[in-house]
Write a structure and sequence with these properties.
By secondary structure, this protein is of the alpha+beta class. It has helices at 34-46, 153-156, 170-173, 183-190, 286-292, 316-325, 338-351, 362-371; strands at 2-5, 8-9, 22-23, 28-29, 65-66, 77-82, 86-92, 97-100, 106-107, 112-113, 119-123, 132-141, 161-165, 195-200, 210-212, 216-221, 226-230, 241-246, 249-261, 270-275. The chain is built from 8 helices and 20 strands. Helix 6 runs parallel beside helix 8 (362-371).
Length: 373
């Protein structure tokens, strides 16, 4: 087993046209003996407020589903390419701002913070498609974050960075608002009416956006602004959002910043996400307010891609991919005409004794997501 801390890992194959690489999401292994590493795992689990974890929760699900990154809400996510050597994942939270992890913009090898001009954000990136992108103009981070001292709850809860882009990319991608995990939302998650999910550019698929649609939620981390969850994340997922689908809308409830691995960083048993409440205008933390100032814009209602954008407002292709995954479409049919897609939706809703909507929308996407196990 190994407790791992953030560092940069060279990529074997660069992404087309833009700086690439893999920042480790869960992080460099220690050389501690097995007994020490086991104690570290027990320490992390002991921090959870919810201590009942079933055997099925003891290992991450290694299944993530490919989505169309040029459709909202996935279009709001992108790669934070750093200095030609590494990448993380970030998410648009306004017309010009991207939220990610602070360790993504620190180069351990050179021992310095990367300059804004060394960072580039590529939204909706999918294989050879990288049509929506912009350089980073500036960034803000917590003055309390210590990049070489990550193994503590206090340091993890300051592992955030807000990037300002040189152009208003959000007009093309849309953006997502922040949300807190209230008791009512947690109850809907428990009842299967809402769900936590996580999407990003993991090392196993660095040129495509893949999603874990069912993040298990063991609990919150004691005395910390942290959420512990069970999603399959890898290197490259650092800074990716912990997303919430609730009552027909998508929002951000956390930023994935740390994890525990027993397989040398290939996947995580537990993931620690910095909760979005740290950025709340009223209840937010002091370090965030000092670094950013006014925070209300992060909590405004999210926005769809603007008219004329290359990013799609409706997730039609993603809906087809999920119908294929659930067995309602063949791979060939998933790329066929709308009538075939509608017929597949009729079958899906008939099985659930519900009428099928006349056209695809976010409620359809949500219904499909809530069906995934």
């Amino acid at each position: 087993m190994s407790w791992q801390l953030p560092f940069n890992v060279p990529r074997e194959k660069p992404a087309p046209a833009f700086p690439s690489g893999t920042f480790a999401f869960v992080h460099r292994p220690t050389n501690a003996p097995v007994s020490t590493k086991l104690l570290l795992l027990l320490w992390f689990v002991s921090l959870l407020l919810c201590t009942t974890i079933s055997p099925g929760q003891a290992a991450g699900k290694e299944q993530r589903i490919l989505v169309n990154a040029m459709e909202y809400p996935w279009s709001t996510l992108g790669r934070v390419n750093a200095a030609g050597r590494a990448h993380c994942t970030g998410v648009m939270v306004s017309e010009r701002h991207v939220l990610t992890a602070a360790h993504c913009i620190y180069d351990v090898r050179t021992g310095r913070w990367l300059a804004p001009q060394e960072l580039h954000f590529v939204a909706g990136y999918q294989f050879s498609t990288y049509e929506i992108h912009a350089p980073v103009k500036s960034y803000r981070k917590s003055a309390n974050y210590r990049p070489l001292n990550e193994a503590s709850a206090r340091n993890t809860e300051t592992d955030w960075a807000l990037l300002e882009l040189a152009s208003p990319l959000g007009k093309q991608t849309g953006w997502l608002a922040l949300e807190t995990l209230s008791n009512s939302i947690l109850q809907r998650i428990k009842q299967g009416q809402s769900v936590l999910l996580s999407s990003g550019y993991r090392a196993g698929a660095p040129h495509a956006q893949t999603v874990d649609f069912n993040c298990q939620f063991p609990g919150r981390i004691k005395n910390s602004d942290g959420i512990a969850h069970r999603c399959f994340l890898q290197n490259g997922d650092s800074g990716s959002p912990l997303l919430l689908y609730d009552q027909g809308e998508f929002s951000i409830v956390g930023i994935n910043v740390v994890g525990f691995s027993s397989d040398n960083g290939r996947s995580n048993e537990y993931v620690g996400a910095l909760t979005s409440s740290r950025f709340h205008p009223e209840r937010g933390s002091k370090d965030v307010k000092q670094a950013i100032g006014k925070l209300a814009f992060l909590w405004d209602k999210g926005a769809l891609p603007g008219n004329g954008s290359k990013a799609g407002k409706m997730p039609g292709k993603t809906i087809a991919l999920l119908l294929e995954h659930l067995g309602y479409l063949s791979k060939a049919e998933a790329a066929s005409d709308p009538a075939v897609l509608q017929a597949a939706l009729q079958k899906f809703y008939k099985k659930r004794d519900k009428p099928a909507p006349a056209q695809t929308n976010y409620q359809v996407l949500g219904d499909l997501i809530l069906t995934l196990k």
